[in-house]
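=== RUN LOG ===
request id: a7f3
mode: sequence -> structure
chains: 1
length: 825
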Amino acid sequence: MTFVEPPWPLNEPARIDRLKGYCILDTPPDPVFDRLTRLAARFFRVPTALVSLVDESRQWFKARYGFHAQYTARRLSFCAYTILEDRPMVVHDTMADERFAHNDLVTAEPFIRFYAGAPLRTPEGLLLGTFCLIDYEPRHDFGEQEQSDLAEFARIVMHELEMRAAQHAAEAAEQAERQARAATERAETRYRAVVETAVDAMVVIDEAGVMHSFNAAAERIFGYAAEDMVGRNVSELMPEPDRSRHKEYIGHYLRTGIPRIIGSGREVEGRRRDGTQFPLELAIAEWWDGEQRFFTGIMRDITQRRMIEQTLQQTNRLLGTLIEGITDPVFVKGADGRFLVVNDATCRLFGAGRDRVLGARDRDFYPPKLAAHVEEVDRQVIETGEIVVLEEEILDCTSGQIRFCLTTKAPLRDSDGHVVGVVGIARDITERKRFEDRLRTAKSEAERANVAKSKFLASASHDLRQPVQSLVLFMGALQGHVEGTPAMRILRSMEQSMDGLRMLLDGLLDVSKLDAGLVTANPVAMPIAPIIQRLADEYTLRAAEQGLRFRTSGCGTVVQSDPVLLERILRNLVENALRYTERGGVLVGCRRRDGQLRIEVADTGIGIAPDRQQEVFEEFFQVGNPERDRDKGLGLGLAVVRRLARLLGHEVEVRSIPGRGSTFAVTVPLIDAGGASPGRSEAVAPEESSGVVLVVDDEELVRTGMQAMIETWGYRVLTGSCRAEAIGVLDDHPPDILLADYRLRDGETGLDVIRAVHARLGRRIPAAIVTGDTAPERLAEAQAGGYRLLHKPVAATDLRTAVVELMGQAVRLGADAQAGRRGGA
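=== RESULT ===
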């Protein structure tokens, strides 16, 4: 079967015009759209997500994640089919769809096997393109919910396009408005200059038209010297045909006494010395000197006025065009509230013609309460002379609906600066308000989803840790029985697998602790050299086993930080560097910069692409590990680094070049070494001793495994599955310490058991909560009670250390109590 090109929509010309109107085609990449495609690829678990726009001959990608081409031919476009209908299109298997089975994008690179696209729909219903997903394996799990989510991504893209288009239009309108204002101001300036600096020409003539006087202004206006013009006929200042008619005009007046200009004014043409003509405003006064009649002509060059009038006419036309071109209602009111100027948008708002709106007031259209509010704001502007910007509800008289408007009102002033009215513009922000409401709803839903996620993770963590804890305990107990046998190799392999799972659960716990705010920083003045030396002692041999060099540079400085947390940050960075470096080495060094110390961990590993350098600090994100090889970590180390650095107030940076390596840097404040105080000392675990341990866990396998392991260490173990059983075994022998699971049956908790045992014994004994629950609330409860918290699965060594330390506390408590009794005696 041959390949069939997709049909065109029936409204293709209008669709293409609307697409080009957004001015988005062939524009540079945009971070907003890039983040959307990256988020969609993660959300839908697909390798490729695109924002596709379909023009006459191609589909062009405004944003593309996982796809190298900037565009493809329209005839090959899946999206060309999607824009035929206003709904998502899903092709579960392209090879099974006759429209695409022979498509070059299916039969050759990139071998598309799955497609899902949601159309980008304009408010007018035109489909510009799609937000689409691509996979290279068939997928039959993309149902209605996924299609709905994909459509929501498409709506977000269209909203962003609409917002930008509106912003561009508003900026263009604002620019045009500024230009119009500037033109008006220039016109007014020229007009004032003409009026304020004009000096009228004055010429005195007799009945024969002979000039007797020619003032300096006339010299300037006509270009003649006074001595050249006195005695000559005034007709020389006139062009034809007025020059020839002038003598006849004077004779007519002298015969009939009927004036045409005398005592009034008119506009005539004047003629300069160079022969050029110009308009004059002429007024003539008749007078006698006692012997003969004279006429004084007062002439004003109105060339500038004519030009100003033309300019003002153009300006007024421009202002009128501008006001009508603004889609928002624009209006001017007098001090009495009556409309003096309105545009079409204002008339549409009132549902009336311009002739009805002009001269009317708001109360003529609005209900009394709404009209009173509008008039009160107008009165405030007039009385204060200040600009008022407010959000208000306005009635759309055409539709009868209430609209939200952002209204700006400014005082209208006369030439003396007195406020004589109000100028206003109202922008409809109803859709923005609705969008803000949707955002608030979406935020609330996201917060509820986050709470649900935390509960789910806590529950899942608990359920996973229970069987893992049983395996850890039984393997610890089994070790003594298979030591020196072939089965020991299998046991070691099992331990390695369990260590990987425990690393994952412990990583989740670290993130939970930091997110819950249960890790506190205790900054002190501390030398950095001991930490660097411990890193060298620990990692030099390990790096050598990997065929790598591990080097450190001396850092003989004192910084302000938390020694334990800072060391944890550096260890995580070194671990990360060793995992992703196959040849070369790792360098840990320090640089002084602006009163701070920059501690750097540099490697020659695989490097990180620029667009991924912030993603590496996110949970479970890994570079170059699609198969999730456990030897390359779990993707939690750098997430912990970012949280710890934020807690300490330290800045963490990364610089990287793919294929050449990466440098992670932590910047900490330097302090004067002389003022340094010692940091925290290393804790020393107490020695083991015999004693009685009470273990309470509702899981029999965990309880039995823990009993077996602790008994191999020489302790006596009492067990119980609930509070009642724990109280019941107290009569056999009072325990020295208590280990209790947090979550027991029938709503009981380990805290309930601890409190019950303390009440029955009449004294406190050292206790620890052992739990698989990583919820922040559990961490906070244990911390508030002052109890040690052990998270399942607990390694045998960690459990043994905890038991030894708790026994040491029990011994000290017993010694203190005995000393107190002796003192009382």
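=== NOTES ===
The two ends are 106 Å apart (CA to CA).
The chain is about 45% helix and 25% strand.
=== END ===
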